[in-house]
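Deliverable D4.2, example record:
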Amino acid sequence: METANYKAGHVLCKFVSEGNEELTFKGLNDEVIYVTPRKCLWENTIYPDSTYCISFWEKNKREREDGSVYFEVSEVVSKVRFMAGE
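Output generated by the structure prediction step:
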């Protein structure tokens, strides 16, 4: 059994845009563009000035032709929600 697909990770980022049922973020530390399905966001409101954390499994991560990283399944939570203890 290959364990690389079962590694988990997270990335801190800022919200960039929303469209086509996807959310686009930009990494705080690496300037990489990250894209997730809208349904992965834990809250209904997008906080443009908040820091977001995308938690993911390596098996759900893939690089797109444009160089962005797409997460088929992930959990996206804002610092606003995290700090509120929800």
